[in-house]
Amino acid sequence: MSNVCKITGKGASSGYNVSHSNHKTKRRFLPNIITKKVLNPKTGKVEKIKVSAHGLRILNKKMR
Length: 64
What we know:
- Strand 3 (33-39) and strand 4 form a beta hairpin.
- By secondary structure, the chain is of the alpha+beta class.
- It has one helix spanning 53-63, and strands at 13-18, 24-29, 33-39, 46-52.
- It has a single domain (13-63), classed as CATH 2.30.170.40.
- The strands form two sheets. A two-stranded antiparallel ribbon has the order 1-2. It has a two-stranded antiparallel ribbon with strand order 3-4.
- The chain is built from one helix and four strands.
């Protein structure tokens, strides 16, 4: 499960592609995942984390 946000826990969800004739085929909705370097306040080291765009907004809000 590499497409999971470390902050919000958002992952891939499933649904259907629906054609004009109402024919349904399975598909996946992937979250907007970004790899960012973040300073860990506990260790003082820079770590790479996978975070969604919504999780990035949460991090920016907490840093203020």
